[in-house]
Amino acid sequence: MPSPPQRPTRQHPAAATAALHPRNRHQGRYDLDRLVAVHPPLRAHLVRTPGGGQSIDFSDPVAVRELNRALLASDYGIAHWTLPDGYLCPPVPGRADYLHGLADLLAADNQGAIPRGPAVRVLDIGVGANCIYPLLGHAEYGWRFVGSDIEPAALQCAGANVRANGLEQAIELRRQHARGSLFAGVVQPQDRFHLTLCNPPFHASAKEAAQGSQRKLRNLGGDTAAPRGRPPPLNFGGQASELWCTGGEASFLRRMIRESAAVQAQVLWFSSLVAKREHLADIHRQLARAGVAEVREVPMAQGSKQSRFVAWTFHAAAQRMGWQAG
Question: Between the N and C ends of the chain, which has fewer C-beta atoms within 10 Å?
Fold first, then answer.
């Protein structure tokens, strides 16, 4: 059987030299003195680099968590942010980049102007205990969010962060009771979302996740040794549901694409991070089979790490402009 025709795909013009988005607040090195002034507990985690400068030990999960607290407080006005041990501690600059790229996506269908304010609704699939996308997206653009998750403990922590910052009117959390579903059971008949976003689990097993953690620690110069029978420490943490699923990232995204067709009338743009470049060809094939109107592939980078997100819509350009106007 011949392959289905490819749908229109646009790639960011700076694909070969991707860097942090121009609106990202975290260009260059962190101003640690400023961050310590806002969040004094960070001082205990400062270390001296071989060149004589200051940094933190990025292989230390506690240090990474305190850095996040400092960034959220100093740059986004998020004064209260807690995260239990063992949960995914997201790198703030990279998460902010995804949101800025999505804002550009909406602006392209809105005469170049980024839609701001509570009229823009966003669904975060797998919001996690950190609740990072809703917190950042509301702080940057004033958008309203619905965050879904399958883990009650994660939703409990995310809810505590929402309440502690007085954001109950801007961020709603919903439990996904069906582990095999992403949109069904979360998207209600009256819902209408400008965007969906997701940071999918990209490992296919617990063993693969542990090996990925070991590689990350080696790259950071950390110690990968761990007691027998226990996984190596994770500088950014992560529960099983955050790190791996059966079939890994590729299987997860195939399911997301299939399910997106069922709620296409209620969502302007679907999107997901894609950690592994080798999955892109299959993603485009699946999107073509689903009958999407347009696909965008947007590269991102933080330091030496290269990433990207893929977005797709079932609405033609004229429909998208009408959606935002209405």
Answer: N
Residue with tokens 């995804």: 98
Helices (H) and strands (E) in the chain, counts: 10, 10
Tell me the C-alpha to C-alpha distance, in Å, between residue 207 and each of 216, 230, 231, 296.
14, 11, 9, 32
Q: 94-125 burial by CB neighbour count: b if 16+ within 10 A, else e?
A: bbbbbbbbbbbbbeebeeeebbeeeebbbbbb
User: How would residue 143 be classed by pLDDT, with cut points 50, 70 and 90?
Assistant: very high
DSSP for 76-140 reads H--------TTS----HHHHHHHHHHHHHHHHHTTTTPPP-STT-EEEEET-TTT-HHHHHHHHH
- Report the chain's C-alpha Rg in angstroms: 20
Cα–Cα distances in angstroms (integers) from residue 37 to residues 34, 40, 81, 100, 164, in the given order: 5, 6, 17, 27, 21
Which helix (H) or strand (E) segment holds residue 307: the answer is strand 305-313
Q: Please give the model's pTM, rounded to 2 decimal places.
A: 0.84
For residue 180, give the DSSP letter. T
In Å, how far from its chain's centre is CA 50? 32
CA distances from 282 to 28, 29, 245, 314, 315 (A): 35, 36, 18, 18, 22
304 against 170, higher pLDDT: 170
Q: What is the DSSP string of 54-86?
A: EEE-TT-HHHHHHHHHHHHHHHH--------TT
